[in-house]
Amino acid sequence: MAITFEHVTHIYQPDGPLAYQGLTDVSFTIDKGSFTAIIGQTGSGKSTLVQHMNALLKPTKGIIKIGNRTITPETKNKHLKPLRQKVGMVFQFPEQQLFAETILDDISFGPQNFGMDETTAHKIALQMLELVHLPTSIAEKSPFDLSGGQMRRVAIAGVLASQPEVLILDEPTAGLDPRGHKELMDLFAQLNQEGTTIILISHQMEDVAQYAQQVLVMDQARLVSDDTPQVIFNDAEFLNKHNLLQPESTQFARELERKGFKFSSLPITEEQLVKQLLPQLGGSHG
């Protein structure tokens, strides 16, 4: 499911004295089946942007196309429920949104809310537990008896249970240990390989470099760049201007350049760094 913004502006409280712009004349396209990252400083407009993608917010000006559906300032809210089934959103710290008495009920709530019968919803809920690497034996337990990392997996399973075509992730690994972080990112990469369009808000530049094919950079409610991670993370002047960091591999490569090492293009992942370093060190894989 492709997503296109055409000159989208969003003004909060447009008729009041506290009116301010959350988005200003934003245009871009996210291709179906892609993995897109959205980066920028806190308050740059990232969350406002993604809330337009499942119609939690509507544009004040401009047009949004999501699949075969078009959203304008005039679009009625009652027409947007089917879209929200297709575009799932995992908010930051999603475990705070758990509410049901059992894990099974929590995960199956979304599908039932969209009209699925209870038996089918429970069957899908069990499949989602396995997908997020939790045993189905916990299904009848309270979600509040789980660890923080397990609660987050249950919350993510609840979004996945509605089988969205697009999955929006707002800092999904915030606060997790390195193992939990990697397991979740690998899960999102797997979903992407199976055809789900992934949209990731992140301050982890290593994740952006490792997983994303497209990067949208927001600053002061404007889209200031739409390019590949390789191009964006090789432009140190642009990153400095917008108060963004390069991935650790890129920072390390820049230090090595000062010591005489040569790079055809600055590496942005560990894999790229090793590939360019080995020949200069006289080594090889083996």
UniProtKB/TrEMBL annotation:
Pfam families (UniProt xref): ABC_tran
Q: Which CDD domains match?
A: ABC_cobalt_CbiO_domain1
Where is the protein localized?
Cell membrane
EC numbers for this chain: 7.-.-.-
Keywords, alphabetical = ATP-binding, Cell membrane, Membrane, Nucleotide-binding, Translocase, Transport
Q: Which domain of life is it from?
A: Bacteria
How does this protein sit in the membrane? Peripheral membrane protein
Q: Which residues form the ABC transporter domain?
A: 3-245
Annotated GO molecular function terms are:
ATP binding; ATP hydrolysis activity; ATPase-coupled transmembrane transporter activity
**What GO cellular component entries does it have?**
ATP-binding cassette (ABC) transporter complex
Subunit and partners: Forms a stable energy-coupling factor (ECF) transporter complex composed of 2 membrane-embedded substrate-binding proteins (S component), 2 ATP-binding proteins (A component) and 2 transmembrane proteins (T component).
What family is this?
Belongs to the ABC transporter superfamily. Energy-coupling factor EcfA family.
> What function does the entry list?
ATP-binding (A) component of a common energy-coupling factor (ECF) ABC-transporter complex.
| Protein name listed in UniProt | Energy-coupling factor transporter ATP-binding protein EcfA2
Cite the source lineage.
Answer: Bacteria, Bacillati, Bacillota, Bacilli, Lactobacillales
